Amino acid sequence: MSLLVLSGSIRRASFHTKLAAAAAEELDRQGQTYRVLNLADFPLPLYDGDLEAQGLPASARALRQLFSEYDGFVIANPEYNGSITPLLKNVLDWVSRKDAQSSQYEPYAGKTALLLSTSPGSLAGQRALRHTREILTSLGAFVLPQHVAVPNAAQSFSAEGKLVDEKQLQALSTQLAALGRLTAKLAA
After folding, report:
1. Distance between CA 136 and CA 16 in Å, rounded?
2. CB 15 within 8 A of CB 7
3. CB 94, CB 17: distance < 8 Å
4. What CATH number is associated with residue 81?
5. Residue pair 87/94 in contact by the 8 Å Cβ criterion
6. Neighbours of 81 (CB within 10 A)
7. How confident is the model at residue 1 (pLDDT cuts 50, 70, 90)?
8. Residues whose CB falls within 8 Å of the CB of residue 81, separated by 6 or more in sequence, listed in order
């Protein structure tokens, strides 16, 4: 059983990248197998059916292969204007496109996902989680009903980028353990 951990932001100082790193540290403590994916390593054009008709871009093929290899996902999901980021939506769209060897939803179908968010404010980016949950569910993923939303990011992370809010660290640990249990059951 293995998990793919990613941030829906490629901004250098992103709190979501720090949150994804905190998830990876906790997965280490729990002995779970995972890989942290940096979306900056996979530049993609905006999804367009005309581009798709010419064949999937190399980065889309590579991402599709990676998503297909893992049993579940941990997604640190930023909120832009109350919704999912264009970067993350574009990645989810390109990965969902079928290739000659597999079905359209194969990278997501029957897999698990845990959604994480944070923001400088008290809502912690939660409005975007609803949209991402709907997208992943429509693609066949089992999204954990609970998520981890870290409010007041500037105070919740240290200057070194570590999650230091004990309550949020405990929530992250609990939800990652739940994700591990569900993923193991579904992968069996």
Report:
1. 19
2. no
3. no
4. 3.40.50.360
5. no
6. 8
7. very high
8. none
Q: Which of 134, 170, 177, 180 is nearest to 150 (CA)?
A: 170
Query: Residues 116, 20: contact at Cβ < 8 Å?
Result: yes
Domains of the chain: total: 1
Q: Give me the domain span that covers residue 158.
A: 2-187
Structure tokens at 58: 């190399």
- Look up residue 150 and give its two tokens: 């870290």
**Which residues have C-beta within 8 Å of that of residue 144, sequence separation ≥ 6?**
112, 113, 114, 115, 175, 178, 179, 182
> Which residue pairs, CB below 8 angstroms and at least 24 apart, start in 157-165?
157/15, 157/18, 161/18, 161/21, 162/18, 162/22, 163/18, 163/19, 163/22
- Read off the pLDDT of residues 32-76 as tens digits, 9 standing for 90 and up: 999 999 999 999 999 999 999 999 999 999 999 999 999 999 999
Torsion over CA: 37, 7, 30, 134 (sign)? negative
